[in-house]
From TrEMBL:
InterPro entries recorded: DhaK_L_YcgS, DhaL_dom, DhaL_dom_sf, Dihydroxyacetone_Kinase
Species assigned in the record: Sinomonas puerhi
Tagged with keyword Transferase: yes
Gene: dhaL
Coiled-coil ranges (or none): none
Gene3D superfamilies, alphabetized: 1.25.40.340
Top EC class, one word: transferase
Domain (DhaL): residue spans on this chain: 11-209
GO function terms (MF aspect): glycerone kinase activity; phosphoenolpyruvate-glycerone phosphotransferase activity
GO cellular component: cytosol
UniProt keywords, alphabetically: Kinase, Transferase
E.C. number(s) listed in UniProt: 2.7.1.121
Example GO BP: glycerol catabolic process
Pfam families: Dak2 (PF02734)
UniProt name for this protein: Dihydroxyacetone kinase subunit DhaL
Organism lineage string: Bacteria, Bacillati, Actinomycetota, Actinomycetes, Micrococcales
Length: 224
């Protein structure tokens, strides 16, 4: 959970994954509609299936650290989520896990490192940059904002990151896609939110909710 010093431990990471599953399920149809406008239309379904698999795994065993939780999420997403989302999110979680492998609890500096590593994994896998109308447009401002928060306060870093991710996702609407299936539409991709950026913003806001909710949010089956 988040301690009084704003540090985040393995119990928080489990709550984050469960809360992510809940919000992805809640926004499943929205994500499908967004992806149907400029992609394959399967983003919401794929993400929902992946996070349901994560929750099922958590119900069997609770990870003992933030790094273990993120690595488990990476493995489940890579094996259960089709399309581009599985490899992209899986790489993000795997890189993030490596970045915090030596931390029992995350302060603001560690949160910033975790998010930067996740973003770098997405960039390495998808070859997209800011402005290409992809999930990078949510992750890059999130990683940059986390650095500006109190380095001792993990929750403050998460809040800054989630706020920036939401702004970044909204800013994808007027962009013309330069990567992924949406890029095939050219100018017609403008006027639509990028579904990957939206799901990224939902997941990063879920991290804040998990931090602020304390130990009451992560009981067995939560988020299923």
């Amino acid at each position: 959970m988040a301690g009084p010093d704003g540090r985040l431990d393995g119990a928080w990471a489990e709550r984050w994954l469960r809360e992510s599953a809940r919000v992805i399920a809640e926004h499943r149809e929205e994500l499908i509609d967004l992806d149907r406008a400029i992609g394959d239309g399967d983003h919401g379904e794929n993400m929902d299936r992946g996070f349901k698999a994560i929750v099922a795994k958590l119900d069997d065993e609770s990870p003992d650290s933030v790094a273990a939780a993120l690595k488990m999420a990476a493995m489940m997403l890579m094996s259960k989520v089709g399309g581009a989302a599985g490899p992209l999110y899986g790489t993000a979680y795997l890189r993030a896990s490596t970045a915090v492998a030596d931390s029992d609890a995350l302060d603001g500096q560690a949160v910033a490192a975790m998010l930067a590593a996740g973003r770098d994994g997405i960039v390495a896998r998808g070859k997209a940059q800011s402005g290409d109308k992809t999930m990078v447009d949510a992750w890059t401002p999130a990683a940059e904002a986390a650095v500006t928060a109190d380095p001792a306060d993990g929750v403050a870093a998460l809040v800054a990151a989630a706020d920036a991710a939401e702004t970044g996702a909204e800013a994808t609407k007027p962009l013309v896609a330069r990567k992924g299936r949406a890029s095939y539409l050219g100018e017609r991709s403008a006027g639509h939110l990028d579904p990957g950026a939206v799901s990224s913003a939902l997941i990063l806001r879920a991290a804040v909710t998990a931090a602020e909710s304390g130990s009451g949010a992560g009981g067995p089956g939560a988020g299923a």
